[in-house]
Amino acid sequence: MKIVLFGANGNIGQRIVREALNRRFEVTAVVRDAKKWTEQHDNLRVIEGDIMNPDSVASISEGHEAVVSAYGPSFGGEEELLEAARSLVEGVRRAGVPRLLVVGGAGSLEVSPGLQLMDTPDFPEEYRPLAIAHAEALRIYTESDLDWTYLSPAATIESGRRTGQFRIGTDKLVLDEADRSYISIQDFAAAMIDEVEDPYFSRTRFTVAY
Fold it and tell me: Which of 68, 100, 118, 144 stands 20 to 30 A from 203 (CA)?
C-alpha cells in the first residue's frame, strides 16, 4: 500500500512511519526540513512540503492510496491547526486520493453524555484553546465530502511499548478500571495503520486506549 504522511517528523508521525514500513507499506514522509531526517528504508521517500498550501498537499498526495496527517501545531498554534485542516481537505480533494486519516485531539471526547473532556474541571486551562481548535478541525473534516477518519488519542499519550492490544471507542473517552485513559504512541500508531490497512471508521471519529 502506498501512503503519504504529513507531519512525519513529530513523535507520533515518526512512529506511524515505522509502523507502516514494518507492514511493507510504501511511505512518502513529508517534513519541513529533509536534512533533519536520518532514518532510511527502501520503501521510504522523504520530501519537503507545506501542509498549509493546498497546491503542495495536492501535488505530493497524487498517486497515493491514502493521506495521513500527524500534523500538530506548537503551543498557541490554534489558527495553524485550522488552516492545515482546510488545506488538507482541499489538497486531498484535488489529488483524488480515496482516503484522509487524521491524528486528532482528545479534548472533544465525551466523559459523560453531553460533557466533553475539555469542559471538565481537571482539564488544564492552558490547553483548552487548542482542544477547541481540534474540535473545530473535526467539524471541518465532517463537513467535507471526503472519506475521512479522525483518530483521537487517550487523555494521556506518551512513548511506551507496542502491545497491539487496546480497546476502541468512538466519541466517548475510553477509561480503564481505575478510570485512567492512556495509550502508548506505539499502539496509537498501530491503530492508525490498522485503519489504513482495513478501513472501518469511514467518515467518523474513533479513539483507542487500554
Answer: 118
pLDDT band of residue 39 (cuts 50, 70, 90) is confident
CA dist., res. 173 & res. 175, Å (int): 6
User: What confidence tens digit (pLDDT) does each residue in 149-189 have?
Assistant: 999 999 999 999 999 999 999 999 999 999 999 999 999 99
Task: Decide if 12 contacts 102 (C-beta within 8 A).
Answer: no
C-alpha cell at 5: 504522511
- Distance between CA 32 and CA 75 in Å, rounded? 18
Q: What domains does the chain contain, in order, with CATH numbers?
A: 2-209 (3.40.50.720)
What does the pLDDT look like over 52-61, one tens digit per residue? Answer: 999 999 999 9
Q: What is the CA radius of gyration of the chain?
A: 16
Task: Give me the amino acid identity at 34.
Answer: A
Distance separating alpha carbons of residues 148 and 199, to the nearest angstrom: 10
Q: Which three cell numbers stand for residue 19?
A: 509502523
Query: Which residues share a beta bridge with 69?
Result: 6, 102
Could you tell me if 51 and 103 are in contact, meaning their C-beta atoms sit under 8 angstroms apart?
no
Between CA 91 and CA 152, with CA 199 as vertex, the angle to 5 degrees is 70
